[in-house]
Amino acid sequence: MAKAKLVKDFKTLSQGQKLADVDAAFEKARQETFPEIVTGPLSKLFDSQMETLKQRGCPSDIIKALVKMKNGVISKALKNQTPKNHIPFIPVIPRSMLNIDEQMKMVHYRDKKGYNYLNQSALKDVVDIPGKLYFIFDVEDGQDMLGKSPEKAESLIKKSGRSCLTTEEVIALCIHTNVLSEHYVDCTGSRYGRAGLIPFVYLGGDGPELRWHYSDGAYVGWGSASCRSRA
Description:
Blueprint: H1 2-14, H2 19-33, H3 36-39, H4 41-55, H5 60-67, H6 70-79, E1 87-92, H7 100-105, E2 108-109, E3 112-113, E4 115-116, E5 123-125, E6 134-139, H8 150-159, E7 163-164, H9 167-176, E8 184-186, E9 190-192, E10 197-204, E11 207-214, E12 222-224, E13 226-227, E14 229-230
Parallel strand pairs: 4-11, 8-12
Antiparallel strand pairs: 1-6, 2-3, 5-9, 6-14, 7-13, 8-10, 10-11
C-alpha cells in the first residue's frame, strides 16, 4: 500500500511538469532522504576508484561516463549483503573501448607498470558481460580459490551462484586493489587462443604481467577471482 501511495502522490506532483525537472527533483529528494548515497563509505569508495583511474591515465571520457553511473551503482551495492572480505563494486572497461595494452599500463606495483604479453584478438570470454562500461559487484579476489586449478575453481564458483572474472575484470581488480601483493589472479571467465588456455595477471621480473597458462594447472600462489553480478 505504501508503495502504491508513493506512486500516486508522485504522479500527482509530476503532472504538468517538464520531464527533466521531474528527474532532477526526484534525484535531489532521493539524495536528501538517503544521504548514504552521496556521503557514505560506498560513495567514498566510488570516488577513490575514479581518482585512481584519473591518476593512471584513463581517458577522461570514460571516467565521465562512469561518474554518471554513481548513484545507480551505490543503490545496487546498498541492496547487496556484501561479505566484509569482498569488494562491493569495481568499474570495468571493455577492451572494445580501451585495449588491453592500455589497461595493463594502469596496473601498478610499486614503481612498475603492467605489461600485456597476449594478443587481444585471441581473447574470448566464456561468461556473459555487458557490451559497455559496467561494474562488477560483490567481488572476491581469488583468495578463496588459492591453489585450485582454473578448471576446478570454475566448477566451484558456478556451484556457489557466482561468476568467474574475465580478463578486463581481473585487470580492473588489479588496478583498484593490492591483490598482486597477496597472490596472482586467474582470469577464468576468459580463454586465450586454443582451448584450455587461461589468461592470468601476476608479478614478473619487470612488474605486473598478463600471460596465460593451462586450465588444469594448479599453483599455490594463484586463485580464480569471482563476482556476484554485473551491471
